[in-house]
C-alpha cells in the first residue's frame, strides 16, 4: 500500500461525514422548499399571514444556507443545524397560526415533514448525546403545537413516529461512525507499516554500505600483508589494523535496528514522490538521523501532504528540510485555504494524532501549525 493511504485513513470518517452531510443538506433543501410552497398554498383561515410571512422568510433563509452547504460539499456546521432545530421548534409551537385545522387532523401538515427532516439532520450532524435530546425536544414541540391548535386531536401517533425516526437515525449513524473508525484504525496501521518498511529498506542499504566499506578496507589490508608488502612490523600497518578492528567492533556492537541512522532527505524525497494529486517542490538538506526519528518525520510529512491534497484546494506544496540553531527542521507549506486547528472536529485525527502528537511525543521533538488566508505551514523539528 502506498503512503497515500494516509489520505484515506484520515478521510474515512471525514469523507463519510461529508457524504452524509451533503446528502442531508440536499434533502433538507428540497423538503424546506416544498414546505414553503405547501405553506403558501395552504394559507387559508385560520392561518394568519402576519405570523406565516415572517416565519416562512426565516425558514427560507435557513433553507438557502443548506443549499449553499450542498453546492460547496462542506461539512454541516453545528450552528446551522442548531438554528434549524430552534426554527422548527418555533414553527411547531406556532402551528395554531400557520397550519389549517384540516391539515392537522389528517396529519398532512407541512410542519410535520420539517420535524422529520430536522430530526434526521440532528442525528446526522451530532453524536447521540446531543442528537437524542434535540430529537425529543422537536417531537415534544410538535405534539404541544398540535395540541394547542386542536385540543381534542390525538398526538400520540405522531409522537411515536418521530421517536422511531429519531431512534433509527441515531442507530444508523452510530453504526456508520463505528465502521469508519474501524477503517481508520486499520488504514493508519497500514500506512505506518508501509513507512516502517521504507525506513527499514533505507536502513538496510545504509548497513550494507557500511559493511561494504569495512570489507573493502579490511580486505585491502589483508591483501597488502599477503603480498608481502610489509616484511617486518610497521607502525603504519599497526595503525591500519587497529582502525579496521575498531570499525568491525563498532559494527558488531551496533545498537538495535531502530537507532540505526537513516538518510532523512532520501526518506522525505520518497514520501513526497508518493503524494497523490500534488506537485511537491523539494529543498532537502542532507541529514542523517536515527531510524525512529526518521520514521516520525515521515509519518508527519505524509499526513501534512495528505491534508494539502484533501483540504487546501491547491495542487502544489513545498517541502523543505534544514538545520537551524542545532535543530533539524522540516516544513510543509501550501498557499491554499487555511483552517483553525482549535476548531477541528473530534474525528480529525490526522492533525492531532499523525502530526502534532507524533512529533511532540518524540524526545527533543516538536511541531507547530500556522494557518490563515495565505495558506498553511507545518513545522516539525528535532534536536539531536
Automatic annotation (TrEMBL):
Entry EC number(s): 2.7.13.3
Class of the enzyme per the UniProt entry, highest EC level: transferase
Family annotation (Gene3D superfamilies): Histidine kinase-like ATPase, C-terminal domain
Superkingdom of this protein's organism: Bacteria
Keyword Acyltransferase among record annotations: no
InterPro entries for this protein: HATPase_C_sf, Sensor_HK_TwoCompSys
Gene Ontology BP annotations: phosphorelay signal transduction system
Transmembrane segments: 25-44, 50-71, 78-98, 129-149, 155-176
Reactions it catalyzes: ATP + protein L-histidine = ADP + protein N-phospho-L-histidine
GO MF entry, a single one: protein histidine kinase activity
Alphabetical keyword list: Kinase, Membrane, Transferase, Transmembrane, Transmembrane helix, Two-component regulatory system
Protein name (database record): histidine kinase
Organism of provenance: [Actinomadura] parvosata subsp. kistnae
